[in-house]
């Protein structure tokens, strides 16, 4: 059975308390607990970002944060990319990133999007058109690389 994803894109100030709680809960489950990285996930960038949520059967299944140019990088960027544990192995990563890329271009009219990707996901992002744009660096003891997607 095919899971239908319902997309919601909101500015931080338009998120309800329940939506924000759910986003922060899932981000902490993935980035703090699963990856064993004790760090403060709310980093001050959420307020100026858009939040793209993918819902399946009313549950938050996939999420990204879309940051305007100049907030994390000179270019617009996509971060905090995740699929909630219960929805893994349902091939949500590509639809999530495809939607995020389209929304980022629509929001900012930008030609380039930069991400800080966990290095083990390099092949996944390369298949979406991103190219490596930095040497490996460590963030919370996890190898990362910057990657850039340039609109044709």
Question: What does this entry look like structurally?
Answer:
This protein is of the alpha+beta class and 152 residues long. The chain has one domain: Gcn5-related N-acetyltransferase (GNAT) (Aminopeptidase, 3-Layer(aba) Sandwich), CATH 3.40.630.30. Helix content is 26%, strand content 34%. The chain contains three helices and eight strands, in the order E-H-E-E-E-H-E-H-E-E-E. Strands 1, 2, 3, 4, 5, 6, 7 and 8 form an eight-stranded mixed beta sheet that branches. Strand 3 (59-67) and strand 4 (76-83) form a beta hairpin. It is globular, with a radius of gyration of 15 Å. The mean pLDDT is 94.
Q: What's the short story on this structure?
A:
The protein has helices at 17-34, 93-108, 122-127; strands at 6-11, 50-56, 59-67, 76-83, 112-118, 131-132, 137-139, 142-150.
- CATH-level-2 architecture: 3-Layer(aba) Sandwich
> What is the general shape?
globular
Instruction: Provide the residue-averaged pLDDT.
Output: 94
Query: Which residue ranges are poorly predicted, with pLDDT under 50 across at least 5 consecutive positions?
Result: none
């Amino acid at each position: 059975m095919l899971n239908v994803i319902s997309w919601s894109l909101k500015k931080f100030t338009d998120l309800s308390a329940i939506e924000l709680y759910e986003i922060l809960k899932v981000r902490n489950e993935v980035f703090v607990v699963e990856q064993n990285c004790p760090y403060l996930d709310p980093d001050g960038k959420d307020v100026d970002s858009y939040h793209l949520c993918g819902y399946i059967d009313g549950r938050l299944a996939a999420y990204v944060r879309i940051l305007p140019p100049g907030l994390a990088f000179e270019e617009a960027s996509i971060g905090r990319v995740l699929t909630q544990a219960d929805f893994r192995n349902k091939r949500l990563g590509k639809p999530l990133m495809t939607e995020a890329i389209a929304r980022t271009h629509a929001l900012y009219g930008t030609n380039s999007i930069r991400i800080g990707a966990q290095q083990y996901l390099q092949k996944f992002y390369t298949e979406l058109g991103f190219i490596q744009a930095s040497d490996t660096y460590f963030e919370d003891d996890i190898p990362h690389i910057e990657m850039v997607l340039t609109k044709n």
